[in-house]
Amino acid sequence: MVPELLSSNLCSLRPNEDRLAMSCIWEITPTANIVSTQFCRSVIRSRHAFTYAEAQLRIDDRKVDDEVTECLRSLNKLAKLLKQKRVDKGALLLASPEVKFTLDEATHDPIELEAKQLRETNSMVEEFMLLANISVAQRIYQEFPEYAVLRRHPQPPPSNFEPLIKAASLKGVSLKVDSGKALSESLAQAEVPGNEYFCTLIRILSTRCMMQALYFCAGTEPEAEYYHYGLAADIYTHYTSPIRRYSDIMVHRLLTAAIDADVTHPDMLNAHRVQEVCNHLNHRHRMGQYAGRASVQLSAQLFFKGKTVTENGYITSVRKNAVYVLIPHYGIELPLYLDQPSFTPPFEYDETVPSQVSGNVCLCTFDRIVVSLMLEEQDNMPGRLRLQLVEPKIKTAESLGAVEQSRVKKRKILNS
User: Fold this and answer.
1) 328 and 320 in contact (C-beta within 8 Å)?
2) ∠ at Cα 64 (61, 67), nearest 5°?
3) What is the distance between the alpha carbons of residues 346 and 357, in angstroms, rounded to a whole number?
4) Could you tell me the pLDDT band of residue 402, with boundaries at 50, 70 and 90?
5) 356 within 8 A of 406, measured Cβ to Cβ
6) pTM for this one?
7) Pseudo-torsion of CA 336, 341, 346, 352, nearest 10°?
8) Could you give the residue ranges of the DSSP H alpha helices within 25-149?
9) What b/e readout covers 184-195, taking b as 16+ CB neighbours within 10 angstroms?
10) How far apart are CA 205 and CA 366, in angstroms?
11) What is the pLDDT, as a whole number, of residue 96?
């Protein structure tokens, strides 16, 4: 992130204040076909600042019909058409749990934790950002075919999906992974009666089968490798967030040179040097992901200190001594350890399904369970969040016959 004076002030649009900008301007038909594209340096005077929630309320309230609101509705309509065009090409509509913390103004400790809610307005902004990134990628590649900073997303090997395909088949869902379009169509049809969260969960787990998207210098890869699998885009880059990504600053420098608005630095025309920077950006991006997860974990520990809550959860994977559980209300995922003496009979791991079985209980991926969540204090050590199984309740020997029949049935499904 660039310094706060830039990120929160000079480089951010503020209502009724002039701000220097680099603009991507399209002429678009009512059916979302692009007639023309131009790039220029510009001065923008924003008329209003909305949160996503505020903009959504404006769009949904039919009693409001001022010019700004009608513009929002027009943009939202176009965004839906653009999104459908991407999906028709094979773009994936995946999901990833995001966490939102509300902090105490005085102590900055988290006082509320919830899963981040996504609205149509989130998608509206995303669609035009994607369109800008694709348009800019085409322009800088046209001008600098050897030096353009691009972003590719390799197609994952089928083996990445094997555990997910097996788990989905147990729920009666067939997942096709031959291509991005086949996967997209499979996910659109993935439903399990009585499990309202299944569609979201399978998209979350599909995201984890993906390869890492990478920045690269155009001159270092064959053109066939430029494809962005997740977006079904032949060429792509990052242009829309220069205040928080250095890759976007590099792209802005190339774009200003491409439209003769500035001269570019000699290092930007050195393919070896550009690729070195891209390698560093890829590494720092991974480190940023790890740091983000650690930050969420620390904030969650502070939030749950002294609390015990009971929530619905969904199993995301089955391991030899645990199942991992996603709690939709909070958007966090934690292990539920099963190698505990309190479970009688003890859980047994069946790697052919895979599942964990104890008495009448058989735990598999996608199953809904109820767990209690608490912070386990440890002497001279940071506390850790811990789950306890609340439901289903384990019964003993009288139900074992029924459970064994269930396990045999699941093996037959896997072998069919």
Assistant:
1) no
2) 130
3) 8
4) low
5) no
6) 0.90
7) 40
8) 52-60, 67-89, 120-143
9) bebbeebebeee
10) 10
11) 85
